[in-house]
C-alpha cells in the first residue's frame, strides 16, 4: 500500500513539474512579449528593457524557470496585470468561492445520484429503472447554459422566487447561490447515477448475491450489507474525478450568474491576457486534477480488497 502511494505521489510530482515547465515555456519564453503585456502595447523598447532587467528576465531561461517554480510553490505568482494586485490575493478568495459552490453541489448531487442509481440497478429493466435512466440521459445531455436559461426563466422571471445573479455583493446568500447549484446538480447527477446503476446491475447478477437471496436472507439486508458496498466501488472513482469538472468546468455557470469564482477569474484573465493569473490558475487546476486522481487510486485500492491484498 505504501509503495503504491509512493509511486502515485512520484507520478503526481512528475506531472506537475512537466506541466509547469511547458506552461512557463509557452508564456514566458518570449520575454519581450511579457514586458509588452505588463507595460502595455504603447510602451517603448527602452521601457521594456528596463523592466526586463529589473525583474530578472535577462537571466538564463532555466534559472528563471527555477526561480518562478520556487516562488509558485510558496504561493507567489506575481502581480495581476489586470487587477494590479498580487495574484495570490485574488486567486485564493475566488478559489474559496468555487469550493463553496462545489461543496454544495456535492452535498446534493452525490446522495441524489447514488440513491437513484441504486434504485435503478436493483431491478434491471423495470419501469423505475427505465424512468431513472431516461431522466439521467436527458439531464446530462442538456448543456449548462441551456438549463441555466430555463431555470432562470422559471424561478427568476415567472415565479420571481430567486435573484438572477449571484454576485454576493452583500455577502453570502442562499438565495443567490441556489440557481448555480441547481444547474450543476441537474447536469452532473445523471452521469454518476448511470455509473452507479451499471455497477449495481453487475453486482445484483453476481453469484454471491443470488446465493444470499436463495438462502432466505432478507432482501433489504442483502442490498445494504452485500450489494451496496461492492456497487459503490466504481462510482467512487467517478465522484472523486468530478472535482476537476467542478473546479474549471463551471466557467459557463459562473459567468452566467456573475458568480465570482475560479472559473470566471480564469476566463477574465484569458480575455485580458493576464498571463500571471492564467499561469496560477492553470497550475492550480492541474494540481487538483492530479491530486484527485491520486485520491481516486488510493481510495479504490482501499475499497477493493482484491487490489489491496494482491
UniProtKB/TrEMBL annotation:
Membrane topology field: Multi-pass membrane protein
Pfam family, one: BPD_transp_1
Domain ABC transmembrane type-1: 95-296
Family indicated by similarity: Belongs to the binding-protein-dependent transport system permease family.
Subcellular location: Cell membrane
Main location: membrane
Protein name from the UniProt record: Peptide ABC transporter permease
UniProt superkingdom: Bacteria
PANTHER family membership: DIPEPTIDE TRANSPORT SYSTEM PERMEASE PROTEIN DPPB-RELATED (PTHR43163), PEPTIDE ABC TRANSPORTER PERMEASE PROTEIN (PTHR43163:SF3)
Cited InterPro entries: MetI-like, MetI-like_sf
TM spans (from-to): 9-27, 99-120, 132-159, 171-192, 231-257, 277-303
Record keywords, A-Z: Cell membrane, Membrane, Transmembrane, Transmembrane helix, Transport
Taxonomic placement: Bacteria, Pseudomonadati, Pseudomonadota, Alphaproteobacteria, Sneathiellales
Amino acid at each position: 500500500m505504501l509503495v503504491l502511494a509512493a509511486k502515485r505521489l512520484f507520478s503526481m510530482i512528475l506531472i506537475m513539474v512537466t506541466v509547469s515547465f511547458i506552461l512557463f515555456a509557452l508564456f514566458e519564453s518570449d520575454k519581450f512579449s511579457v514586458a509588452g503585456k505588463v507595460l502595455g502595447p504603447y510602451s517603448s523598447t527602452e521601457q521594456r528593457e528596463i523592466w526586463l532587467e529589473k525583474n530578472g528576465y535577462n537571466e538564463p531561461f532555466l534559472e528563471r524557470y527555477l526561480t518562478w517554480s520556487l516562488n509558485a510553490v510558496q504561493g507567489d505568482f506575481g502581480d495581476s496585470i489586470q487587477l494590479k494586485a498580487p495574484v495570490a490575493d485574488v486567486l485564493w478568495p475566488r478559489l474559496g468561492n468555487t469550493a463553496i459552490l462545489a461543496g454544495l453541489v456535492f452535498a446534493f448531487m452525490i446522495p441524489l445520484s447514488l440513491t437513484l442509481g441504486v434504485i435503478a440497478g436493483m431491478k434491471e429493466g423495470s419501469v423505475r429503472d427505465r424512468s431513472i435512466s431516461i431522466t439521467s440521459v436527458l439531464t446530462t445531455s442538456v448543456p449548462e447554459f441551456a438549463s441555466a436559461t430555463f431555470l432562470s426563466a422559471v424561478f427568476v422571471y415567472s415565479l420571481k422566487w430567486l435573484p438572477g445573479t449571484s454576485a454576493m455583493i452583500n455577502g453570502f446568500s442562499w438565495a443567490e447561490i441556489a440557481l448555480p447549484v441547481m444547474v450543476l446538480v441537474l447536469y452532473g447527477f445523471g452521469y454518476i447515477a448511470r455509473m452507479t446503476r451499471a455497477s449495481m446491475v453487475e453486482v445484483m447478477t453476481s453469484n454471491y448475491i443470488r446465493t444470499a437471496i436463495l438462502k432466505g436472507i432478507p432482501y433489504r439486508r442483502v442490498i445494504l450489507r452485500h450489494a451496496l458496498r461492492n456497487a459503490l466501488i466504481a462510482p467512487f472513482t467517478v465522484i472523486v474525478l468530478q472535482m476537476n469538472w467542478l473546479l474549471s468546468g463551471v466557467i459557463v455557470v459562473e459567468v452566467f450568474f456573475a458568480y465570482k469564482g475560479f472559473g470566471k477569474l480564469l476566463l477574465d484573465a484569458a480575455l485580458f491576457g493576464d498571463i500571471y493569473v492564467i499561469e496560477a490558475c492553470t497550475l492550480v487546476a492541474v494540481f487538483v486534477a492530479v491530486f484527485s486522481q491520486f485520491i481516486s487510486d488510493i481510495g479504490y485500492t482501499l475499497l477493493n480488497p482484491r487490489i489491496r491484498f494482491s
